[in-house]
């Protein structure tokens, strides 16, 4: 259940969001902290504080903020997506995979499946990544998704061919570096 913000909270939250857009992240955090002093369960303030912290290079602080946002509003899709993105950026693929799998169970967008695919590629699970990209393509057909699908298929094909030819593509020689 979402909490109804008081008007002062809304004003401060919007000031903070404006500072994020201007890339004035420390000032943004100060506004979000003011909101959180008034209402420590303001999920939007926690989520936006996480965005500012991440932009300042504090990924761990961002994750803490997203976790607080989700404590305040377990249904916050924005906080879930932001948390999953940061986990992926930190190469914490197992946790990112779990986060994206939770996101795609509900009402996912194509971008959720594309992000899931990126995590799966990072984990070396190319078949599963291809499946996620195909889901993205079904939800929102686009040239960009089709290109990603084709690129992944090419990579998978190259891996299969290299496996068949001892790690080398036909015509690459034996890998000894000789140029006879």
What does this structure look like?
The protein has 180 residues and is an all-alpha fold. It has two domains: 1-90, Serine Threonine Protein Phosphatase 5, Tetratricopeptide repeat (Alpha Horseshoe); 93-168, Serine Threonine Protein Phosphatase 5, Tetratricopeptide repeat. It is 73% helix and 0% strand. It is built from nine helices and no strands. It is elongated.
Any descriptors?
single chain; about 180 residues; mainly alpha; Serine Threonine Protein Phosphatase 5, Tetratricopeptide repeat; 2 domains; about 75% helix; disordered C terminus
Would you kindly provide a brief summary of this structure?
The chain has 180 residues and is an all-alpha fold. It has helices spanning 7-21, 25-38, 43-55, 59-72, 77-89, 93-105, 110-122, 126-139, 143-164.
Architecture blueprint of SSEs:
Blueprint: H1 7-21, H2 25-38, H3 43-55, H4 59-72, H5 77-89, H6 93-105, H7 110-122, H8 126-139, H9 143-164
């Amino acid at each position: 259940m979402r909490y109804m913000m008081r008007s002062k909270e809304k004003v401060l939250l919007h000031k903070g969001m404006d500072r994020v857009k201007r890339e004035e992240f420390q000032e943004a955090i100060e506004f979000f902290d003011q909101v959180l002093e008034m209402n420590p369960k303001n999920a939007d303030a926690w989520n936006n504080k996480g965005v500012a912290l991440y932009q300042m290079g504090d990924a761990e602080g961002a994750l803490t903020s997203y976790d607080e946002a989700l404590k305040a509003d377990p249904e916050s899709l924005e906080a879930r997506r932001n948390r999953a993105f940061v986990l992926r950026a930190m190469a914490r693929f197992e946790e990112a995979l779990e986060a994206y799998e939770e996101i795609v169970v509900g009402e996912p967008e194509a971008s959720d499946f594309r992000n899931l695919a990126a995590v799966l590629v990072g984990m070396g699970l190319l078949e599963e990544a291809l499946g996620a990209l195909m889901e993205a393509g079904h939800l929102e057909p686009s040239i960009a998704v089709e290109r990603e699908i084709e690129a992944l298929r090419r990579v998978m094909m190259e891996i299969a061919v290299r496996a068949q030819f001892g790690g080398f593509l036909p015509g690459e020689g034996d890998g000894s570096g000789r140029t006879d």
